[in-house]
Amino acid sequence: MQTIILPDQEQTLIHIVRSLPSNRVDQLVDFARFLETQIPVEEMFPEETQEEIDADNARWDALMATDEAQNLLEKMANEALAEYHAGKTRPMAFTADGRIVPG
Hints:
The protein is mainly alpha-helical. It has a domain at 48-93. 65% of the residues lie in helices and 6% in strands. The chain has helices at residues 7-19, 22-37, 41-44, 50-64, 67-85; strands at residues 92-94, 100-102. β1 and β2 (100-102) form a beta hairpin. The longest helix is centred in the C-terminal third of the chain and has 19 residues, at 67-85. The model has no long low-confidence stretch (mean pLDDT 87).
């Protein structure tokens, strides 16, 4: 997919890159590679209308707003933090083609 970038957008991106320290530029490049690999929703589910997608998103929002969902999310976050503090996690890195790999 080819994207048309407007001159103002390009200049804004260049300005941002030039104002960042080098380690943040590396992060920006990693994020750009991540975005580059993402498939737009309309390509993933071409048979769904925007109204169907919006309705599905509304159902998820309602589900996530429940106390049960919030408790489960909190439990999962606490488990992840415990694993991190116990040294059971690994950093992530990106390959040249934008794939996520253990760091």
